[in-house]
Amino acid sequence: MSLLTLLCRKPWSAGWWLVLLGLSLPIVGCAPSPRDAGRVLVLGLDGLDPQTVDLLMSEGKMPNFAKLRQEGAYGKLTSQKPLLSPIIWTTIATGRRPEDHGIGHFVATATDTGEQIPASSDLRQVKALWNIASAASKKVATVGWWATWPPEIVNGSVVSDHTAYHFLFERGLTGDNDENKTYPPELADRIAPRLRRPTDLGFEDLKPYVTVEPDELSRPFDFNDDLAHFRWALATAMSYRDIGLDLWRDEQPDLAMVYIEGTDSTSHLFGHLFRAEGLAGELAQQQAKYGRAVEEMYLFADRLVGSYLEALDERSTLVVLSDHGFELGALHDDPSKTRDLRRVSERFHRLQGILYLYGHQVKRHTRLDQASILDITPTVLALLGIPAADDMPGRVLAEALSLDNIGDRIASYEGVPVDSRRPNPGDATFSQAQLQHLESLGYLGGDSAESIASPQSASPQSASPQSDRNLAAIQFQQGRHAEAARIYQQLIENDPEDAGLRASLAGALGALGRYDQALAELDRAIELTPLNVEAYHNRAVIRERRGDLDAAIEDYRTALRYQPQYEPSQQALYRLTGDIDVRAADTDAERQAERLVEQASLAARKTDYESAMRLLDEAEKAAPSYVLTYQYRSNVAYLMGDLETAITALEKGLEIEPDNALFRTNLERLRAAGQ
């Protein structure tokens, strides 16, 4: 009889408690009856979009997802901003908020060198599902999950997220490096036959996804090469799929967690091409080569789900989910910002992902209406017969389950000791490959590329400034304004010239009613960076609260002048004036020019630059003083490589609007580029 069974028997005597609590065994609390508990397989598909799944399913192209929907429970899974994978997947795996689990960005800071390194398991401050299940004597298998390197010692196996980067290199999983990618270390040799390198995928493997010439496959590997990057994404997805299936079948774990990134990476690379119509120029060329890649990767995901469905037994539950959705077929509003319109970072991420539950103890034909990423860990624990903890804010999705007894919660798992040692971290060669991957997708750069060492941390790495920014933003979103202000103030002490930090601090101070301090921070932010849209918006909010509506409207308009798609200012300006047009056309000629500029903008977004220039010529002829004509002419000329025309257009724009900081800034950059 196990200790857990004895603890859940009633009545207990005081003597029993004294004897049992003296044993140094993991106590996880009273669980549901053993007949309720089964095996659970969690399949994470990064960035899989619910609207796109519904579209393809309606066309009969995703039969395995249709099976999940028809015979299981399903719904959208609400995520949490910022929509960044390490944060969300760690929240999913722990049931804890980012401010508790401690991972706030893709990167952390090495405390000894101050260099930027990918966030790792050392940074996580709470237990994950594989730790909790191991402590409850459940066998686990984790494959490819974010921030699992260095691999922890568990009751089972861990194939860490570094594995996919090792087979980019000639020495692969073996060789003279001492970095362990798996636990136990000898697991690396067992899974090696299942690993596919990008170069292992030949012309026939890639043919369903892309249209390329065979000689294009001979180029050296580079994450900035679209084809090479896609080969890596597909090879990694195939590898993790096969490794996860092998471990599920061979080791018979009670809990398996398999993560597939390829759906998200492919969407970042080629999502703008998904069923897009009317493309021209370089975008049309991209679409001819890569236009079906995203759709085919969704079909790959469906086949992958099918392979896992076949591996289930009668006591297994399959949980399929994504961390967020993805707006596919969308082009950037300003083509001058990204040359090939694809380095979009999280901009086109949607807040809601997918969630499907199927199999043992799942009610058929159940709709999940308000599922959250915080609900996954409590629900998985319930299916395993393990109670959730009070410090997990999510709930068990009981409406989808047929469990006899979900069980009471324990206070916390953080007081229960587990063996979470990480063997031999090793060198940073492959961390650099991971950083290159993230940078090529637009996740790293700008503020996130700058990191400083934190002397307060004794761990091998500490949170980066961008991580702290994200955690502060989360605190602000959840109404903890004083804590957000405290974090921002600490960050400003290290980087007093960061205008973005000052604007964010002002938002927190304003929410606390400290308006004078907030306005001082905003004035300084605008002085440092005249194009700081967030600063203008936050200053407008404070002026509106103080009743100075004219000044507030002017600031909202300035924010939109420099970033027309900034939704907070759009909504505020519409609420106050009924209009979001910051440069309203006053005459028939200007209204004609406005229509022509809008058509030119659409043509430019589709890379039909010749048509865009022709429309802009007509707009300038119709209304020579309509300033947006010159802004768009400069953008299009720059994309065409005509710096002289781009500079001349901005010079004309500044004659009309001498105070336009955007024009001045871009003109300085263009002149510098032409030197």
Number of helices: 28
The CATH architecture designation of the domain at 31-400 is: 3-Layer(aba) Sandwich
Alpha-beta classification: alpha/beta
Instruction: Specify the helix fraction band.
Output: 40-55%
Report the end-to-end length measured between terminal Cα atoms. 81 Å
Morphology: globular
The CATH homology group name of the domain at 31-400? Alkaline Phosphatase, subunit A
Give a quick precis of the structure.
The chain is an alpha/beta fold and 675 residues long. The protein has 28 helices and 14 strands.
What does this structure look like?
This protein is α/β, with parallel strands linked by helices and 675 residues long. Among the domains are: 31-400, 3-Layer(aba) Sandwich (Alkaline Phosphatase, subunit A); 588-674, Serine Threonine Protein Phosphatase 5, Tetratricopeptide repeat, CATH 1.25.40.10. It has 28 helices and 14 strands. β3 (107-110) and β4 (116-118) form a beta hairpin. It is globular, with a radius of gyration of 27 Å. The protein starts with a helix and ends with a helix. Mean pLDDT is 83; it is low at 1-35, 166-178, 337-343, 420-430 and 446-462.
